[in-house]
Amino acid sequence: MAICKLKSLLSLSKCNSALVSSSIRAFSSAQNVGFIGLGNMGSRMANNLIKAGFRLTVHDLNSDVLEMFSQMGVPTKKTPYEVSEASDVVITMLPTSAHVIDVYTGPNGLLHGGKLLRPWLLLDSSTIDPQTSRNLSATVTNYILREKKGEWEKPFKLDAPVSGSVTAAEAGTLTFMVGGSEEAFLAAKPLLFSMGKSAIYCGGAGSGSAAKICNNLALAVSMLGISEALALGQSLGVSASTLTNIFNCSSARCWSSDAYNPVPGLMEGVPSSGDYNGGFASKLMAKDLNLAVESAKLAGCKYPLTSQAQKIYTELCSVGHEAKDFSCAFRHYYSGIDEPHDQ
C-alpha cells in the first residue's frame, strides 16, 4: 500500500514538473509584452524589457512619454484594450487601486472584449490593496484564452508589486513580491528577472500586495525611527555622522541608516544628497500607509505605529513636501540639520 502511494506521488510530481516546464517554454516563446503605466518606475522597467529582447507595446495617459517610446520604435496604443489585443502578456504599473480597476474593467479596459482574452498572463506591479488584487484575480478566472498556451486554457493574473527605488528600476535590481498561481509565477520568472534581481512567491492572489504593504510599513517606521534618533542626537550634541557610524556597527543598523541615510551630506547617491529629489515620494508613502491602516482594520490588528507614521507623512504632504523623497522627514518634520562629509 505504501509503495503504491509513493509511486502515485512520484507520478504526480513528474506531471506537475512537466506542466511547469511546459509553461516556462510557453512563456519563453511569448515575446509580445504589453506595458501600461510608464511613470518613473514603469518607464524604466519597460526599457529593461526592451533590452532583454521582448517586443513591447505600450500605453500611458502621458502623450509625451508615448512619443518618447514611439521614437524608440516601440508601438503605442490609445487604450488598454488595444494593448491587450497586441500582447501575450500585459504588465501594469499604476498609482492607485482605482487606476488598476479602471485599466482592467473600465471602458476599453483589458477585459473589455468579452470572455475571450488574448494575453495568457496579466501581471500587476502596482502597489494596491490586497482585496482589489484578489477581486481582479477572481474576475480573470472567468475568462478563457482565445488560443491555448501550452497546457493552459485560462488566463492567469499575478499581483507582483516591487521593492526598490527608481534607481533600482533603472538598474534592473528590483525585488518582486508575487501572489497568485505558483505555476504562473514559475513561468513568469524570465520576465521578472529581466526587470529585477529577485522574485519571491508569497502565496495566493493578493498575497504579493499584502507583502508589499507590510514591507513599506516597516520601511516607513524604520526611516522615522532613524530620523528621530539622528535629530535627537544632534540636539544633544552628538553628530549624525557619529551616530550613523554607531548604528551601522551595532543593534540599530538598518537599511535606512546604512544604505539610504536621511541626513544631507552623509551619503552620496541617495535622495538626501540631492535636496530629497527623486527616490520614493512622500505622497506615495502616505498612500501605502493608508493601505496599511485599512488592511489592519479589516484584519482586526493593532496599528499604533502605522497610524503615527500615516499622520506624519500626511502632514508632510499637506505642507508641500509630497514630491520629496520620504526620507525628507528628517529635515521637514524633525528639523534635523545637514552635515558635511568631513564633520
TrEMBL record:
Q: Which InterPro entries match?
A: 3-OH-isobutyrate_DH-rel_CS, 6-PGluconate_DH-like_C_sf, 6PGD_dom2, 6PGDH_NADP-bd, HIBADH, HIBADH-like_NADP-bd, HIBADH-related, NAD(P)-bd_dom_sf
Q: Which SUPFAM superfamilies match?
A: 6-phosphogluconate dehydrogenase C-terminal domain-like, NAD(P)-binding Rossmann-fold domains
Give GO terms: molecular function aspect only. Answer: 3-hydroxyisobutyrate dehydrogenase activity; NAD binding; NADP binding
GO biological process per UniProt: L-valine catabolic process
Catalysed reaction(s) here are: 3-hydroxy-2-methylpropanoate + NAD(+) = 2-methyl-3-oxopropanoate + NADH + H(+)
Which branch of life, at top level? Eukaryota
Which residue range or ranges hold the 3-hydroxyisobutyrate dehydrogenase-like NAD-binding domain?
A: 206-332
Top-level EC class: oxidoreductase
Check the record and name the NCBIfam families matching this protein: HIBADH (TIGR01692)
Q: What is this protein called?
A: 3-hydroxyisobutyrate dehydrogenase
- Higher taxonomy: Eukaryota, Viridiplantae, Streptophyta, Embryophyta, Tracheophyta
Q: Which gene encodes it?
A: LOC100798272
